[in-house]
Each structure stands twice: as C-alpha cells, then as structure tokens.
Q: What sequence folds into this?
C-alpha cells in the first residue's frame, strides 16, 4: 500500500485530500503519475502539469524516485 496525499488547490480540483493505493506499488514516481493520469478529466489535467511538486516520505522527489509499499507520496500544487 502507498498513501497518497494531495495539498493546496489539488484538493479542490481532485475532490480528495488523500487515498491509498492497495495494488502493488508502481516502480517509481513516473509510473505513479502515469497511473493517476489514466483516470482522465481533472486527474489528467493536474498530472500533465509540471507545476505539481512531489515528495516521498517527506523529501522532495524526482520522477525517477523509486517507490515501495509503505511509502507516503504527497502532491503539492504550484498554482496560486
């Protein structure tokens, strides 16, 4: 399981502040973002935008940052 947290404008845009992914963890942030974009609509809009900052276990992360079960991933909107 991976815990996903959404902050700032993302909460309103996506309609949620958090969720859990119970399926096997995506291999890295890039794979997670691709999975979220597949939801379409606002998800595709949000995760197609480079102004979203991402942390893994409270440390800023890059797209190639690996993921494993138990990780906490936070998405922070860069929009004002």
A:
């Amino acid at each position: 399981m991976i815990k996903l947290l959404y902050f700032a404008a993302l909460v309103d845009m996506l309609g949620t502040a958090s969720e859990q992914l119970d399926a096997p963890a995506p291999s890295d942030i890039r794979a997670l973002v691709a999975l979220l974009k597949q939801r379409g609509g606002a998800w595709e809009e949000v995760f197609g935008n480079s102004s979203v900052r991402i942390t893994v276990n409270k440390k800023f992360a890059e797209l190639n940052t690996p993921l494993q079960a138990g990780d906490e991933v936070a998405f922070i909107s860069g929009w004002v």
The chain has a mean pLDDT of 92. DSSP finds three helices and five strands in the chain.
